[in-house]
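Protocol step 4 of 5: obtain the predicted structure for the target chain.
Materials: sequence only (see below). No template structures provided, no constraints applied. The aim of this step is simply to have a reference model before the mutagenesis design in step 5. Sequence pasted as it appears in the construct record:
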Amino acid sequence: MKISKKATTIAIVNQKGGTGKTTTCENLGIGLAMEGKKVLLVDTDPQGSLTISMGWQQPDELPATLSTLMQKAMNDQPIQPGEGILHHAEGVDLIPANIELAGLEVALVNSMNREKMLKQVLDGAKREYDYILLDCTPSLGMLTINALAAADTALIPVQAQYLSAKGLEQLLQTICKVHRQKINPKLKIEGILLTMTDSRTNYGKQIDTLIRQAYGSKIKVFEQTIPRSVRAAETSAAGKSIFQYDPKSKVAEAYQSLAKEVLVDAEKRLKRSTERSRFKCWNQSSEGDGENSKASPASPRTNRIAFECFGSSRVRCAS
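Step 4 output (structure tokens):
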């Protein structure tokens, strides 16, 4: 079943390094491809970590990267279909990155519509894919803002440690700014993903409970967590996903389960959106029918839909 006519773009974001963004982007993307979805991965980090992890060990030698495409967007030059896209053996596509992206980030500061350059690059690709996953840089700079501006949702990997959990506040404030400043008022939180977990220790269990209690009432915290694994860390050097490197491992099972959870959530959002559209059409058709045309209080069903759409899946920002 196709989730929507256009790709769902997910920014995998956390300004703290070492939380598992790149590993999650690669393995979630390939997990979605294994479920029959057409997936594009985009490396938005000048370090090129995703590009290297997927087997292109010399990203600086690639003829076209994300920097090339964004430079064209800044100069109002056309981007050809498929330009800069690499095809991976495990069934996903990749727009790679290298150190040139660091220089482009500096140039973005003086560019008109600077927050929307990545969105312009991806607009054409959205019709060709089911999912586009953005591996964000470990900062809250202009490249991360571009990723949030281009995304439909943000998935936040959080290492199961105290300091990593504390860093969530600053990231959520940045997402709030993206809302308030109308850079991307439709951006939603896909969920918080606990990574490098260790259920054998009391400390790991405490951090899990802490995050679920602190954020779970307003933001989805994925039921599936990603366990700590040396084998998962080795995949970057091998240029393979965990599904090829160690397909029977707990990490492979976890990412496959995460992919299924993301798809289930997408179906739920689509169902809610359809219900909301039907209610809106019904409400408009009732206007002008005598007394029914008068404004009436929102029904419990309307309030329920509003809470589901805006209370649970969209981040609440302080006014």
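Step 4 remarks: The CA atoms of residues 105 and 142 lie 6 Å apart. Residues 250-286 form the longest helix (37 residues).
Proceed to step 5.
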